[in-house]
Automatic annotation (TrEMBL):
Keywords: Ubiquinone. Pfam families: Coq4. This is Ubiquinone biosynthesis protein. InterPro entries: Coq4. It comes from Glacieibacterium arshaanense. GO terms for biological process: ubiquinone biosynthetic process.
Length: 255
């Protein structure tokens, strides 16, 4: 498979139906997620239950951006690009590609793993359809680790919560809002560090930054990280950085 071909698991083309919001399923998944930040399945359960028209609206917005029409026409699959680590290793030190390789190696994660989890949850909702909206949904999923790197949020519980708040500001997907709110409410219960304020800062950073879903990520791979952040309007995560790494998981206490 290359970046221009769809995954082998693509289903025959069918009409995508609007998804009604399912709050009981979302809240049940949220409780599980707040008890185990690594339970990625619950993230996709929440997003599937609550996102409604967010993917469609995002795709329509993409068509109105400079370069968005071309990317939508080409419908390149980012997961294929991200899994070619040999090609990514050819980019210079300090580039987005180099940071991506280091970030995923340290976290022992990859794009294929995220895609597999999404298919486990969304197998009946069209994630692998040969359809523009489904393609945009996959693209939104596949840029998640890029957003970790661009925003400076790590893989700790707090880092994920801050990125979730950032993602809501960028996508207006209700699932992200619910996860961020749940994490912030738990953070308030621990006054030892500004956990909830750091999550709110993530939302504010998402609002002030450029719309990252309109960016050409393949073209960005060779850009140096710091100038790239400046170009995208990504200010430093001051409150998040003020919290020592060793206590960033303490802000989301389990029940």
């Amino acid at each position: 498979m290359n970046a221009m071909t769809p995954p082998a698991a693509f289903k025959p083309d069918t009409k995508l139906q609007p998804l009604k919001r399912d709050w009981p399923t979302a809240l049940k998944a949220l409780r599980k997620l707040l008890g185990d930040k690594d339970d990625t399945v619950q993230v996709f359960e929440i997003m599937r239950a609550l996102n409604g028209r967010a993917t469609r609206d995002g795709y329509d917005k993409l068509l109105g951006t400079l370069g968005g029409g071309r990317m939508a026409y080409e419908r390149r699959e980012l997961s294929a690009v991200l899994m070619d680590r040999e090609a990514l290793a050819k980019y210079p030190a300090g580039s987005l590609a180099a940071h991506y390789l280091a970030f995923t190696a340290k976290g022992q994660i990859d794009a294929q793993g995220l895609a597999d989890v999404s298919r486990q949850v969304e197998r009946d909702s069209g994630v692998d359809l040969a359809h523009p909206y489904a393609w945009f949904g996959r693209r939104t999923r596949d840029v998640h680790d890029f957003w970790h790197i661009l925003t400076g949020y790590d893989l700790t519980g707090l880092g994920e919560a801050c990125l979730v708040a950032f993602s809501y500001a960028q996508t207006r997907a209700m699932g992200w809002a619910v996860i961020a709110t749940g994490a912030a409410l738990r953070g308030v219960r621990n006054p030892s560090a500004p956990y909830a304020r750091a999550i709110w800062e993530g939302y504010q950073r998402g609002k002030s930054a450029k719309w990252l879903l309109a960016e050409d990520y393949e073209a960005m791979l060779g850009e140096q990280l710091e100038p790239l952040r400046a170009r995208l309007g990504l200010t430093p995560p001051v409150l998040f950085d003020s919290i020592p790494v060793e206590i960033r998981n303490n802000g989301l206490p389990k029940d």
